[in-house]
């Protein structure tokens, strides 16, 4: 009986302690939003900025439409496509970048006709050296 009284006292003390503790609200939000509307595709790593003309090779386009990257990837399982990482800011690129909503320049096709890739990517941020 002594054990039960101790347990009841501890339970009452715990309830009082929880009632006196200020309430905290956790806010968790998961949202990836719409796929970026970039004229030549977007990088496959956050923050998914638009990639410049020449970054992606022909495997990344279906009928001239970019198949996606990152969380919006629409390619087949096991996909690996060529990129030219000289146009990647993580590799030192500091040139012009398109913005979401920009249109493809009339004199440029997507991808470039003379594309030269030096790396392959899977659409989810994983890269390997290109095999020629």
Written description of the protein model:
By secondary structure, this protein is low in regular secondary structure. The chain has one helix at 2-20, and strands at 61-62, 65-66, 81-83, 119-121, 127-129. The strands form 2 sheets. Strands 3-4-5 form a 3-stranded antiparallel beta sheet, with no helix packed on it. It has a two-stranded antiparallel sheet with strand order 1-2. A hairpin with a 5-residue loop joins strand 4 (119-121) and strand 5 (127-129). 20% of the residues are buried. Mean pLDDT is 82; it is low at 26-30.
Give the strand order of the largest sheet, numbering strands 1, 2, ... along the chain: 3-4-5
Number of helices: 1
Total number of beta strands: 5
| Uncertain spans | 26-30
Report the radius of gyration as a whole number of Å. Answer: 26 Å
- Sum up the overall morphology in one term: globular
How much beta, percentage-wise?
5-15%
Structural class: little secondary structure
User: The biggest beta sheet, please?
Assistant: 3 strands, antiparallel
Mean pLDDT score: 82
The end-to-end distance, rounded to whole angstroms, is: 81 Å
Provide the helix percentage.
Answer: 10-25%
Oligomer: single chain
């Amino acid at each position: 009986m002594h054990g039960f009284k101790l347990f009841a006292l501890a339970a009452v003390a715990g309830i009082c302690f929880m009632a006196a503790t200020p309430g905290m609200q956790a806010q968790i939000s998961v949202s990836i939003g719409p796929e970026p509307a970039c004229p030549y595709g977007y990088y496959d790593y956050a923050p998914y900025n638009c990639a410049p003309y020449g970054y992606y090779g022909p495997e990344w386009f279906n009928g001239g439409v970019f198949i996606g990257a990152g969380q919006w990837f629409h390619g087949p399982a096991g996909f690996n496509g060529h990129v030219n990482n000289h146009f990647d800011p993580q590799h030192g690129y500091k040139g012009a970048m398109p913005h979401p909503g920009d249109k493809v320049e009339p004199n440029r096709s997507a991808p470039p006709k003379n594309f030269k890739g030096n790396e392959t990517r899977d659409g989810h941020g994983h890269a390997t050296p290109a095999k020629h």
